Please model this.
Amino acid sequence: MKMSNTFGKQSLKNLEQVDADLVRVAYQVLQVFDHSIICGHRGEAKQTEAFNAGQSKTPWPKSKHNQLPSLAIDFLPYPFDGYPNMDDGIVKYAKDTARFYAISAAYIAVGHSLGVSLRGGFDWDKDGLFTDQKFDDIGHIERD
Model:
């Protein structure tokens, strides 16, 4: 019998300033897919750094990460076998890419079942097409 997944210390810290409904969804998804929360609330310095590095297309204070509580999280599958390439946002291994999409879809589905409208950085316009994005952020989930 599989034991329940748990968030590690850093994930728990990153969830401290996140919207309660989004946290509730995260715990439900965790029971199906093990993953880490690598970002919740992002202050001005971190948002500016992410924006300047091309990791975010939204300047301070317009990102949903910048609100308190944060209306966005970023995650990584756990364990993570690939690595995000900070130059172009591409994940090294196709299997890890598939895990990102599976976890993202679980967030959307669980959110829907709990009455929490979410969207992911894999389908910003929520049209079901993943190839029409100008900026892919497949590890990003936010309140809609």
Remarks:
- Residues 56 and 110 are 25 Å apart (CA to CA).
- Helices lie at 9-15, 20-30, 44-52, 94-113.
- The chain has four helices and four strands.
